[in-house]
Amino acid sequence: MRPADLASLAGGSLRGHPTRSLLTLLAMAIGVASVIVLSGLTEGARDYVRRQFLSLGTHLLIVLPGRNETHGGPPPLLGSTPEPLTLDDALALTRLAPVRRVAPVVVGNVPVRHGGLEREVTVVGSTAAFLPVRRLRLAQGRFLPPGDAHRARPVGVLGARLRRELFGPGEALGTWLRVQDRRFRVIGVLADTGQALGLDLGDMLVVPVASAQQLFDTDSLFRILVEARDAESVEPAREAVLRTLRRRHDGREDVTVVTQGAMLAAFDRILRALSLAVAGVAAISLVVAGVLTMNVMLVSVAQRTAEIGLLKAVGAADRQVLALILAESASLSGLGALLGLTLAAGVIALERRLFPAFPLAFEPWAVGFATGAALLTGIAFSLLPARRAARLDPVAALAGHA
Amino acid sequence: MNQDLTRLAFGALRSQPLRSGLTALGICIGIAAVVLLTAIGQGLRQFVLAEFTQFGTHLIAVNPGRNVTFGLSGALIHTLRPLTLDDAQALQRLSQVRAVVPVVQGNAEIEAASRSRRAMVIGVGSRMPEAWSMTVASGRFLPGGDLRSTTAQAVLGATLRRELFGSTNPLGRRIRIGGAPFRVVGVMAAKGRFLGFDLDDTVYVPAARALALFNREGLMEIDVLYAPEAGSEAVAGRIRRLLAARHGDEDFTVTTQDKMLATLDDILGILTAAVGALGGISLLVGAVGILTIMTIGVRERRTEIGLLRALGARTGQILRLFLTEAVLLSALGGAAGLVLGAGGAWLLQALVPALPVRVDWRFVLLAEALAAFIGLAAGLEPARRAARLDPVEALRAE
After folding, report:
1. What is the pLDDT of residues A375-384, one digit of tens each?
2. Would you call B205 helix, strand, or coil by DSSP?
3. Taking a C-beta distance cutoff of 8 angstroms, is the pair A177, A112 a contact?
4. A63 lies in a domain?
5. CB–CB of B29 and A295 under 8 A?
6. In 3-state terms, what secondary structure has residue B314?
7. What local confidence, expressed as pLDDT, does residue B40 receive?
8. Based on the domain organization, do A105 and A194 belong to the same domain?
9. Are B329 and B290 in contact (CB under 8 A)?
10. Which of B50, B55, B58 is nearest to B122 (CA)?
């Protein structure tokens, strides 16, 4: 039997029972579409997290004071240490070869007043390098002036949201803000970048690091942000930072350096495992669809006993009958997968139009996995009905005694 | 008649055992997936809740700063409105407050005679073991009395004790924390890990000492243990009023443990339901299976239906007959799925004891009811088709 004959025979018998064939197709399509859409959801989340990290810059290193001995434990993100990082530590890092920029960071919560309005905001003390290191953009005015980091200046740059809250539609540039007992002149406003990994950058006031240290009466830093020259120099930069700080801290290794890549990789691993698990759970429905295919094929073989008997009587071999039934179920699951793909593509396109900020991913691996699983279950579950058909005795089948 | 109906339906199912079995198998797989997935979800939920309640449930935490910034409370960064030891002292005098624990946390080098190690340093008060449900393994905890006490005594966590002293007795020995001398007066019983943190790689010192060590003026947190019979909201309200009066403004955040747990429980419950819904996709496919097989069955049994109608069966009876068949199929499949799912959960628990699994019978009942409903919904259209058959036409078909 030629493949074309096989296909036309299989197609003909499917068309002979349109309701049954369509329902089986529908079952397969639901399974395939749910695998693709659900893995698109988790892969979309993975892309989202990756983009958020990339928006912070790819070559970023974060230096935290303190270190934990426990291996595999989390970095000491919380808490204080008796050996703090200082501004001079940060300035020493700027001279390292693999380092492009260094932004020291002091952070605190302070009420900021303008006119009759007061708002408790995050005051970030840093230098001119903070803008490029955190990939921020200015909407108006200018950023902190470069120059001696030790010099306190009464100037500040507003986040977009803080500007709205304190000034409304009015002009903010050049006005004076009262922060505790000090006054700061607004020299710039940051562009609205929304939230980055949960940090609302819009509700903050950026001032020179020395001014922030005076405000909080401290000589320590919260973090040092270090930007490496390029992707290759992240690791050398990490080693150089650790070496330099150990030398400056009398040989004690009392800081932790977290690289952006390490954090991204940790999130990436978790989300990848999640999306595989979700796809796997959705694939259970494909097995159910496979069971249905088997059932329908069994019914079809039983109803066509006489037809199969005739085929065998005119000389069709067992293998040809087997191939005929398998071709039928393969086209059922193949068409079902195609329908599922179309359905999934439609859902994803609709979602992308409705929520452009969080697009679902159309993952090639998920498409391949779903289609492969659909075909495999469809054919595997039809082996029993196909063998039953192939083993029919032609005489008995024609006589209707199968 | 109802008995006859069931017998007739059963008979029809039994006459096609393979076909009925496969249709029920589809529902069975779906129900088993729902039961197993919700069992894993519920297990995780209880695991997480147990992690959080191991510190006691009648706790209220007070943090400095009005709002949470950078995902961290104001305690970790600088704030111009610190919580002080005097604030903690004042909270002790509130009614229905059992114990007040000031908390300062940090990281420092700990040196014993021959070894040194960087570990977590927690400044607390003498009532910490009671408030955080921890026990002292040997020696005693920090001395009671004034929260502002600066006595240079320290209590080691189990891991830190092992790392610094090995098997020798640490009690009475001198250690240096961040360069300052302390005397070891006790060792805590092991508490294990919490969300990845090794809680035993820790040394506990008086809060006032920790403030001096880290050169801080404010506490990171004040934990208030209240009497179990008192309402958390009432105590939280009193704490708020007292501190607002002392500070002249509400520049702190009060979190009650039970409220936080309730929120957490809600989130995890929703997550479990979502995971169950994921398994429900298989049920949907199983429903399509019932629809398909019932449609085929009605077509095959036209003569039988025609005969029944000719003998005087009303359309309502035919409808009920086929609906009963569909519901029986899915209910039997569902019951098998329950056994399979619960068995799978049991097996998973036996093979991977670390993965918490717990079959929630509410979800199980819901899944079984859903299975029966699916049978009803999927069987409706084929049953109506059967009921509408014209007896004469149907009999002539053969």
Report:
1. 998 888 888 8
2. strand
3. yes
4. no
5. no
6. coil
7. 86
8. yes
9. yes
10. B55
Mean pLDDT, rounded, of chain B: 85
**How would you classify the pairing of strands A99-114 and B78-79?**
parallel
Residues A277 and A237 occupy one common structural domain? no
> What is the pTM for the complete model shown?
0.74
Across the strands, what pairs with A242?
Answer: none
CA dist list (Å): B113 to B37, B109, B173, B182 = 53, 13, 9, 12
Please give the tally of structural domains in chain A.
2
* B279: nearest Cα among B40, B41, B42, B32: B32
Residue after which a domain boundary falls, among A224, A253, A282: A253
Residue A95 lies in a domain: yes
pLDDT in tens, B154-175: 999 998 998 889 888 999 999 9
Taking one residue from A and the other from B, the number of pairs with CB-CB distance under 8 angstroms is 186
Of B28 and B69, more confident = B28
- pLDDT for residue A264 is more than 90: no
Q: Are residues A117 and A170 in the same domain?
A: yes
Tokens encoding A134: 């955190």
Largest CA distance in chain A: 105
Please count the other Cβ atoms lying within 10 Å of the Cβ belonging to residue A49. Answer: 16
Task: Give the pLDDT band (50/70/90) at residue A198.
Answer: very low
Domain that holds residue A285: 3-53+265-399
Banded pLDDT at B72 (limits 50, 70, 90): very low
Same domain, A284 and A348: yes
Residue numbers of A between 300 and 339 with CB closer than 8 Å to B:
303
Give the ranges where A17-106 is alpha helix by DSSP (H): 18-55, 87-93
Last residue of a domain, one of A210, A227, A253: A253
| Inter-CA distances, B212 with B151, B157, B204, B221, Å | 12, 21, 14, 16
Q: Which pair of structure tokens corresponds to residue A71?
A: 């291996």
Backbone angles phi, psi at B69, to 5 degrees: -120, 150
Residue A75 is assigned to a structural domain of this protein = no
* Section B81-97 average pLDDT: 88
Structure tokens at A11: 């197609």
Same domain, A248 and A287: no
Please report the residues numbered 270 through 299 in chain A whose beta carbons come closer than 8 angstroms to any beta carbon of chain B: 278, 281-282, 284-285, 287-289, 291-292, 294-296, 298-299
Token pair for A237: 């930069």
For residue B37, give the chain A residue with the closest CA.
Answer: A281
Q: Which residue, among B222, B69, B211, B250, has the nearest Cα to A109 in the 3D structure? A: B69
What the block records as the tokens of A369 is 């996995």
Query: Based on the domain organization, do A23 and A88 belong to the same domain?
Result: no
Residue A197 lies in a domain: yes
From the list A254, A252, A77, A69, the residue with the least C-alpha distance to B202 is: A69
